[in-house]
Write a structure and sequence with these properties.
Structural class: alpha+beta
Distance between the termini: 56 Å
Low-confidence stretches: none
Order of helices and strands: EHHEEEHEHH
Strand content: 15-25%
Strand order of the largest sheet: 1-2-3-4-5
């Protein structure tokens, strides 16, 4: 295998951040990344870690990540949310995405979760096809709903 998958550590967070920025550029939103390397270190490796991250390494360079965290479904119980599965552009088509997703699914099963959920941007047909080939249900009749920081403030100012 030309790469290895392992759990991330705090020292990996600069490379993780670099891949997050690479994804944001690919998704045409480079200015949307507000998180810092220090945020990732604090939130992933503090007293109460908020996420688990798997990294893929090739020749001692991190070339992919899968970042997950637990959620709770009122219908199913404990679920795992895959926030991002990122494969460096130069590694696409190498099997790295499959290896990372395999690790996430094995991790979810070990946790005993009832579902693993994630979002995919609607124009990324290659990712949608990839997930569907893996047996995932891409629910095209659901919309993602969010309040960003400004939206939260605006909401609270109007109640």
């Amino acid at each position: 295998m030309p790469f290895t998958i392992r759990l991330a550590n705090a020292a990996d967070m600069q490379s993780v951040h670099d891949l997050i920025v690479e994804l944001a550029v690919y998704e045409k939103e480079p200015e949307a990344v507000a998180i810092s390397v220090e945020d990732l270190k604090r939130d992933g490796f503090g007293a109460l870690p908020k996420f688990t991250c798997f990294v893929a390494e090739k020749e001692q360079a991190i070339v992919g990540i899968a970042l997950v965290y637990k959620r709770y479904s009122t219908w199913k119980g404990e679920v795992l949310h895959l926030e991002d599965l990122i494969v460096s552009h130069k590694m696409r088509g190498s099997g790295l995405g499959t290896a990372l997703l395999d690790e996430v699914v094995k991790y979810g099963q070990a946790l005993g979760v009832k579902r693993i959920s994630w979002e995919v941007i609607d124009w990324n047909e290659s990712a949608i096809t990839f997930y569907e080939k893996k047996g995932a249900n891409v629910m095209r009749d659901w919309d993602v709903v969010q309040l960003n920081e400004a939206g939260i403030i605006n909401y609270l100012n109007n109640i």
